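Lab meeting minutes (informal)
Scribe: AK
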Amino acid sequence: MTQEIVLKNPTSLHEHPRNQEFFDDITGSKWEEFKTSIAQMGVMNPLIVTEDNTVISGWQRTRAALELGMENVPCIVRKFGSEDEILRCLIETNIRQRGRIDSNHFKQAAIIGEMERLYNIGKRGGDRHSEAFKQTKAGVNGSVTNQDDLADMMGLSPEHMRRIKSLLAITPELRELAEANDTPMGLLISIAKTMDAEAQKEMVSQLGVFQQEVDSQVNKKIKDFLLKAQSEKQQQTEALMAQSSENQRLKEELTSVKNKAERAQALLNDRPDEMQKLDEASRVLFDQLTQSNQEVEEAKAEVVALKKQKEELEQNCVSSQEYEETTRQLKEAQEKLTAAQGEIDRLHKRYEGLPTSFCDTLGIVRQMLKPFLAVSRETWGTFPMEDQIKITRELNSTVSLLNPLMGAA
């Protein structure tokens, strides 16, 4: 018989209240693939709904249509004679469409228990006097007449189905604990076969106390790890702040040095003619002082000759007037040298900013003057007459060389 298909807005549909008791929602990558298929192909198989828009078959398609914002989905509105008939359709159609039961073991056990109730299936087969059995024989609900038929419909072996069914003896408290901790099914089956409901409740109570102790230890460990992490983070923050402060100090110092260098460069750029003149003056002065140094060396040789001449003058009884004249000349030379020394010192202070070669030249002049000043002040009276005359001439010559140099400076 052809059934009429009507379009309904998915927002008007709602899930059967016991659907989650038997079946899990599709999640993860499988759900994304399922939605993609619906988006591309649409809802190919109509939903089965009751007259009050309760979805009996097709809740996952309804979810996808809602998420995709579809305005209509195809539906077959079916009338049911009882709630058991609705449940039987809910379970059977979902099993046929999914191909296998992929719910967790507790939901599989709930399906087995509900199907046995609906078909009045006992350990040794079905109840041949039940209405469900009669409908089955009439071909309304397939060929489910015993546990083997039920196992075949669910895609399980009879033995495995019996093992899963034993989970129905697990109390709700233990089931919640087992699902939260992913307890192996084999262990749960052993518990179901060995412990009654009261023993299971006692075990859950003891496990709750143990779990509290474990949670307390875990929380303490978490706090310890947290405190350690906070301390390490604080140390890292302080180290970063110290490094940042040092970097700022170095940056400011670098900026200061850079500013000084820029000011110095600007000063040099603003006074190029003056710097060139100073450089030329330093070179001239160096050349003149080098020449003076050479002449001083020659004067030293002449001193030796003066000593010998003095000895000869003393032997020849040089007149007192000639001796006094020589002494006067030497005194004048000494005064000029002293003045030259002072002038050189003044020049040194004046040209401290000149290139190193110029300052070195002034040092050479000082060294040239030191021997004459020492002779005139300390040992003049001990020199023979010819030496005094020679030194006097030498000093006069040196002063004559220094005068132009002082004038140029």
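Next up, CB showed the second protein from the same session:
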Amino acid sequence: MQKVTCETFSLQKKIAILAVFLFSVKVVAYLITHSTAILADVMETTVNVAAAFIGLAAIYISLQPADASHPFGHGKVELVSAMVEGAMITIAGVIMIVESLDAILHPHDITDLGIGIVLIIAAGVANFIVGRMAIRKGERSMSPALVASGKHLVSDTYVAIGVVGGLCAVLAMSELGYDAYWLDAGIALVFSLVIVVTGIRVVKESIDDIMDKSDFDLLQQITDTLNEHRDEHWIDIYGMRLMKHGSRIYADFRVVLPKDMTVDDVAREERELQEAITCRMGDVEISMTPVPCDDGVCWECGTECTGRHEGFLGLREWTVESVTSETSTFLQWGREPKPIVPERSPPPETGVCA
């Protein structure tokens, strides 16, 4: 995981360097053309530059190990970084709405559109390629700051597409003798609204993560892993809660185990659960609360123990709803067996991924 986080930091450095370079390219394009639409793109890229360096600082801080003051590590700083970036995107969009309205009311001539269009196309292609790379890498390494940077670059590409399309229309209509310079400001206004919506969305997602909103996709991954590596001693799992700190995930839940297990047995089961989840998902730390079974669930427990009262009939497939339930669902289901869990891989041996 340390290698993954270092690669994340390295990619964010490249994004910061790219942001500075593309900002320079777009400033040149604006100075050549005096296009309000290109000015909107310049404003967006200005935010890109600031956000890239904020994200770089956030990822660097998040890489620092846990200490006495921050026992869960420093990963939450990435969420703060993403929220600040979203706020900056929103502010840039609002400023550009004002500029666009002013340009509509007070239109001005545009010059050398051809050169400006070429420069914006080149910058947009670079933004899209690097942005998609950042999103994929950020999702794999669970880095909110890198995902936010990637989304910002991709949204900048969409703005560039609209700007280029509109400017091409302005150029074509001008060649035909029509006065279409008002369209330049109109395009800028539309994409300024897009920028505002993007910024608000980034802020909302960051706040959700700070408040530990349930991540259904992540819960589904963990549930699938538990079903795949299910041990015969794991009668039921419920009460699961997740907390994300940057790229690190903390999960706590209750596990119903045979009541004749010793403390050593319980510790072994916790290690097996930790290994099963870590092998599939990486840096996930679990906290397991063992719960002894009762006499009414022998029919869905595959272990042999001295307290068995009836024969084993089958296991139930765990779902996100069942593992996040506050109470064990096997007590709610009654004695009618549900569909049997398909054949699964045996639990991984200690230290070895299945």
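CB comment: Strands lie at 236-245, 248-257, 284-292.
No objections, moving on.
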